[in-house]
Design goal:
By secondary structure, this protein is α/β, with parallel strands linked by helices. It has one domain. It contains six helices and ten strands, in the order αβββββαβββαβαααβ. The strands form three sheets. Strands 2-3-6-5-9-10 form a six-stranded mixed beta sheet. It is globular.
Length: about 260
């Protein structure tokens, strides 16, 4: 691992990393730009007891549902000098089965981000659009194995649309983080050493964002979805989409952490 950090292994060993409080939300996407496409729905808005917000917004159940954001966990302390030694970045996507109301505000994910920051990474924990409906249809006489619990089936186009939207947002967040580094003052990342990771649903997003490097590859997995939700690289985010022929952020990716 010494190759992705400044200094020798011995100097890293003697460094004392402490983790600053995570940075307040940094927004990388407004959910209502011109030309924005999404699906609106009303029934079963949130499976976790949230009420339906006024105006029935497209997705999400968050106090800041008007925008997407990321948190940043960054090391401070002896041995850290961002002006001379930017650190490798880890961009994380949360779990939640793409269902509504899932977010980066999860104890397990927060603990993981803090642990990785304490080991010398600048860690970004990103929100993304969610929205798999909880439409439930009971299948009679098919218990799940838990006494008294019926088996449910979930039938909704959101199973595909929510995943596609999340993958759009993952790409937009990665570009926006790279772009924001130019003006960041609290920390600096080495944009040539970016790791992308996720937990559960987030791990699928991470692999999609790193390994599916063209619209054609995306369309093979999500046939006809781009007709409804547009390019996998829409111009919705703080950083613009790549130009034709641009290698995009892919040369900056050093690895994937799949949880």
């Amino acid at each position: 691992m010494a190759g992705i950090f400044c200094g020798t292994p011995s100097s890293l060993k003697n460094s004392v990393f402490t983790v600053a409080n995570r940075v307040t939300r940094t927004y990388y996407k407004n959910l209502t730009p011109a030309g924005y496409q999404d699906v609106h729905y009303y029934l079963n808005y949130c499976p976790f007891g949230c009420s339906i917000p006024n105006g029935n917004p497209a997705t999400g159940c968050d106090d800041d549902a008007h925008a997407l954001y990321y948190y940043v966990y960054y090391p401070t302390g002896t041995g850290i000098n961002y002006s001379t030694c930017p650190l490798p970045a880890l961009i994380m996507f949360h779990s939640g089965a793409f269902s509504e109301c899932s977010s980066p505000d999860q104890d397990g994910l927060e603990d993981f981000c803090e642990e990785m920051a304490s080991r010398g990474f600048v860690v970004f924990s990103c929100s993304y659009r969610v929205g798999v409906l909880t439409d439930q249809t009971n299948i009679p006489n098919t218990p799940t194995g838990h006494e008294g619990d019926p088996k449910w089936q979930y039938v909704s186009a959101q199973q595909i649309l929510a995943i596609y939207r999340a993958c759009q947002d993952a790409r937009g967040s990665i570009r926006s983080i790279i772009q924001a580094n130019a003006t960041e003052t609290l920390f600096k990342i080495n944009t040539n050493d970016i790791f992308v990771g996720g937990m559960s649903a987030g791990s699928l997003i991470a692999m999609n964002a790193v390994y599916y490097q063209s619209q054609a590859m995306i369309d093979a997995v999500f046939p006809n979805v781009s007709a409804a939700l547009g390019s996998i690289n829409p111009d919705f985010y703080a950083a613009p989409p790549p130009a034709i022929g641009d290698p995009d952020y892919f040369p900056n990716i050093a690895g994937v952490i799949n949880l």
